[in-house]
Sequence to fold (69 residues):
Amino acid sequence: MRGLVRLCGHLGDLALALRINLRQIECFNQVAAAGSIRKSSEVIGVAQPAITRTIKDLETALGAARQSG
Fold:
């Protein structure tokens, strides 16, 4: 159990360091699975512009982390 708690703490630290959140990862995963933003919008019930903005924020966070790392 301690190992799991420690792992969750490390994942939280990683997400904070990268400035990403679970919603961004879920949106990315859904777009990848659906093959398009339009289809993923229908599946998860979120407007296309919101998904686009969320993916853009994720790309920005990952790009910033890559540049500083």
In short: Residues 44 and 68 are 33 Å apart (CA to CA). The two ends are 31 Å apart (CA to CA). Residues 2-68 form a domain with the Arc Repressor Mutant, subunit A fold (CATH 1.10.10).
